[in-house]
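Q: I'm building a small set of examples for a reading group on sequence design. Run inverse folding on the following structure and report the sequence directly after it, with nothing in between.
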């Protein structure tokens, strides 16, 4: 049976994953609207939104399997869906996503710390998947951000970036 404190913190985490999913979705829609020519970038963002949804469901199922109840009442989502209003470019989108992924990584680290403090080795084991996922996600978004910084205003560079993101994404 899962301890109440662990259940509570895992619930906060699935809210964060839902927030991540909505964030990627809002970015996808914004890029599609503003930069319709770069559909590789918007497809990547739409697909990533679905991945975040999977992260959320994984947490819900784990809480329920351990005897807790992952109810969706009082969902607490930080109001950062307006973040696209602060975006003036695709670079801003990736900067914000990178910042967001770093916050998620910190949350996962805090959860791991808590699971050890509470001697909940089942949850500790379960969270290792999220640790690995965050290493990959931070690395992926940072890689795209670095490429974007190199391109700046070079139009042909943007064309190649869009192709690159499509190719990387399809070959996963
Ligand atoms: Fe589920 Fe991108 O963190």
């Amino acid at each position: 049976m899962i301890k109440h404190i662990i259940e509570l913190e895992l619930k906060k985490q699935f809210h964060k994953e839902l927030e991540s999913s909505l964030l990627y979705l809002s970015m996808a829609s914004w890029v599609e609207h503003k930069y319709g020519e770069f559909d590789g970038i918007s497809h990547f963002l739409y697909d990533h939104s679905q991945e975040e949804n999977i992260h959320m469901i994984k947490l819900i199922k784990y809480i329920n399997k351990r005897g807790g109840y992952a109810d969706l009442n009082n969902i607490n989502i930080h109001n950062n869906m307006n973040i696209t209003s602060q975006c003036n470019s695709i670079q801003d989108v990736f900067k914000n996503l990178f910042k967001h992924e770093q916050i998620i990584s910190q949350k996962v680290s805090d959860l791991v710390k808590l699971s050890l403090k509470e001697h909940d080795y089942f949850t500790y084991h379960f969270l290792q998947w999220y640790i690995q996922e965050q290493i990959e996600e931070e690395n992926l978004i940072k890689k795209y951000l670095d490429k974007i910084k190199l391109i700046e205003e070079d139009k042909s560079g943007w064309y190649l970036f869009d192709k690159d993101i499509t190719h990387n994404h399809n070959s996963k």
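The chain has five helices and no strands.
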